[in-house]
C-alpha cells in the first residue's frame, strides 16, 4: 500500500469539508438522531468554520492518501487552539477521520505517528485527544498505541450532551 501525506492549505477547503462530512456521517449517523447530526455537521463543517480553522497558526490539517486517493485526515492543535486547556507542553489530536473503505489498514497508526512526529518537532511532552465514550473501537485502538484515560469532558451533538474520554500519551 502506497501511503502519502500532504499538509492542507486554504485551497483544500472544499475537499476538507467534503471528507469531514463524509467520514463523520459514516462513523456517527447510526448512533445519533438525524436532527442532531444535521445540526452538528452544519456547525462544525461549514466553510466559514473550516476556513477559520485552516487559517489558525496553532492548528494543522494533513490529508492522508492511499495511492492517489484521499483516505482521510488528521487535525492537530497546540497552544490556545486546543479544545481543553492542557498546557503549552501538549499537542491535541482533534481529529483522525478515515474513510470507511480505508479503515483497519494501518492509517490510524500512521496518523498517530505523524502527530507524534509533529509534537516532537514542536518540543511537546504529551499528546492527547478526546474520544466519545461509546466509540469502543477507537478507544481500544488508542489504548493499544499507548494512550491512557486521564479525564473526560462534555461534547454536544446538537442538543444532546455526550461524554468524551480524554486520553493522553507522554512522549519521551
Would you kindly provide a written description of the structure presented here, covering whatever features stand out?
With 172 residues, the protein is of the alpha+beta class. The chain is 35% helix and 34% strand. Strand 2 and strand 3 form a beta hairpin.
Question: How is this fold's topology laid out?
Answer:
Layout: E1 3-7, H1 13-28, H2 34-44, H3 47-55, E2 59-66, E3 69-77, E4 90-98, H4 107-121, E5 126-132, H5 136-144, E6 148-157, E7 160-170
Parallel strand pairs: 4-5
Antiparallel strand pairs: 1-2, 2-3, 3-4, 5-7, 6-7
Helix pairs in contact: 1-3
* Overall tally of structural domains: 1
Structural class: alpha+beta
Uncertain segments: none
User: Major sheet, described briefly?
Assistant: 7 strands, mixed
Overview features:
7-stranded mixed β-sheet, single chain, 35% helix, alpha+beta, 172 residues, 34% strand, Aminopeptidase
Summarize the structure.
Strand 4 (90-98), helix 4 (107-121) and strand 5 (126-132) form a beta-alpha-beta unit. The chain is built from five helices and seven strands. The chain has 172 residues and is an alpha+beta fold.
Amino acid at each position: 500500500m502506497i501511503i502519502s501525506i500532504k499538509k492542507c492549505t486554504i485551497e483544500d477547503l472544499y475537499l476538507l469539508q467534503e471528507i469531514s462530512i463524509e467520514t463523520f456521517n459514516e462513523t456517527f449517523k447510526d448512533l445519533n438522531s438525524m436532527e442532531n447530526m444535521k445540526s452538528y455537521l452544519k456547525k462544525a463543517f461549514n466553510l466559514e468554520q473550516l476556513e477559520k480553522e485552516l487559517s489558525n497558526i496553532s492548528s494543522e490539517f494533513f490529508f492522508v492518501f492511499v495511492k492517489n486517493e484521499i483516505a482521510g485526515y488528521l487535525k492537530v492543535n497546540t497552544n490556545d487552539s486546543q479544545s481543553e486547556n492542557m498546557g503549552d507542553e501538549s499537542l491535541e489530536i482533534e481529529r483522525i477521520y478515515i474513510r470507511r473503505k480505508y479503515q483497519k489498514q494501518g492509517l490510524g497508526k500512521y496518523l498517530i505517528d505523524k502527530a507524534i512526529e509533529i509534537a516532537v518537532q514542536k518540543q511537546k511532552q504529551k499528546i492527547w485527544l478526546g474520544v466519545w465514550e461509546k466509540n469502543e473501537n477507537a478507544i481500544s485502538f488508542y489504548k493499544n498505541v499507548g494512550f491512557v484515560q486521564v479525564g473526560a469532558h462534555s461534547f454536544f451533538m446538537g442538543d444532546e450532551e455526550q461524554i468524551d474520554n480524554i486520553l493522553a500519551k507522554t512522549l519521551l
